[in-house]
UniProtKB/TrEMBL annotation:
PRORP domain ranges (all copies): 258-485
GO function terms (MF aspect): metal ion binding; ribonuclease P activity
Catalytic reaction annotation: Endonucleolytic cleavage of RNA, removing 5'-extranucleotides from tRNA precursor
EC class of the enzyme, as a word: hydrolase
Listed Basic residues bias regions: 1-12
Family note: Belongs to the PPR family. P subfamily.
Protein name per Swiss-Prot or TrEMBL: ribonuclease P
InterPro entries the record matches: PROP1-like_PPR_dom, PRORP_C, TPR-like_helical_dom_sf
Segments traversing the membrane: none
Domain of life: Eukaryota
Entry EC number(s): 3.1.26.5
All copies of domain PROP1-like PPR, residue ranges: 7-216
Region (Disordered): 1-20
Amino acid sequence: MDHHNTRRKKQKLSPESQFRSTLDQCSKTKDLTAAISLYESSPSPTLTLGNLNSFLYICSNSLSDPETRQPAIEFGFKLFHHHSDGDNFKPNEATLTALSRLAAARGDGDYAFELAKSVKKYGVAPKLRTFSPALICFCGGAAAAADKAYEVEEYVESVGLHLEEPELAALLKVSIESGKEKKVYEYLHKLRATLREVDESTVAIIESWFSGKNAADVSVVSLDSDRIREANTRNGGGWHGLGFLGNGEWALQRSKIASYGQCCACNEQLVCVDTDTEETEKFAQSVASLAMERELHSNFKEFQDWLEKHSEYETVVDGANIGLYQQNFAEGGFSVTQLDAVVKETHSKSKKWPLVVMHKKRVRSILEDASKRELIEEWLDQGVLYGTPYGSNDDWYWLYAAVKLKCLLVTNDEMRDHIFELIGSNFFSRWKERHQVRYTFTKGGGLKLIMPPSYSLVIQESEKGSWHVPIAGEISDESSRTWLCVTRSGSIDAEEVSGNLIRNGSNNTS
């Protein structure tokens, strides 16, 4: 056996196999010099697309080193131009991404963008990483061109992609450097809508804006407090989107947030941000559409009609989730006692009965128990209980009710299957943070409701015009997180602020 293995090891690899093996090693070690030597020493360097991509990968990973940057750019484009002449050449996403990086590295943002857009020509599914080099190129260095960067952003969004923190930070930076105050405001809000916490490098860009003269010169006029409050409420709280409020210079501090949501630097109260009215309505419609695809249409429509006539609930309760909590023991079953505790506690808090959603089959089963019948009948009389039809999935019913009525939802269900199916998991996670109430029962049977947090981990813009930015970092709990607190040192009351973005006393349309 050993003799056989030794003989196999002595067998020579074919030239193609040897070439590929050496190239794999160069790729693994990102050795540009060895890769160039391999190519130039090959008697017939006709490359497969896989081999070409490996070379381009090595080139694009050699751009950060000043010594290999220029050779990498030259060698990469030499390979591409030499091997892309044929009619049968069809690059994939990896090819175009690597080439776009090389083009951006030599300051040619236009060509990087052209290469990225060619995904359509070649029938390749677009990815953000293919467009990012062009956008970053237009945002910095000698090739900085804000309007071209905005054009890339617009194209990226048109193909269904969404920018992430590096791209948004770059756009914010180029907007600051170009003196485009409205764009600065726009990208601050795009960061707010995209991120839950902000990297220190992005925070530095935000600080550069608020500590600069341009930011001190920009303010808003002719807005009254009612309009600001109305916009804030419509947006779900935490931002109004009407422009930089107040006037004068901004004061920047690093701060902590108390457990109840108050900033320790400026004493302003942060809020638990809800989803906005339009988003919530779309979400309710999507839940209903998905439910009707999976449920008997007439059953769910009947529930919708019933809910329209009974819209006074402030809390929806997932009956099965609570009744079956920690019941996986020999005598365990459905605990009406646990469910009753939740019903009583929620009623105690709001002075309104909750809506408990449960299968009719389970309701009927509980009614057969004489010791529990009176309680269930009382719930039915009080309108506490809605029994979902036989064969239905009660998840759709309690989720729709909670979304449609903008209620709290008492459940420990992680709802991962819903996140998987519903469009916009980022939206759904925000909705859960604001509306889901979790619970525990102690060994003695005591109930503890875990209410939504008092404030949201997200960039917040207050009705007074201050900003609070959560900074990313390794933390043991939220009380130890550092926030950037930005207030106007010469702040004025909301009633005095204005509606037209002005700069140095004149209208600014940038």
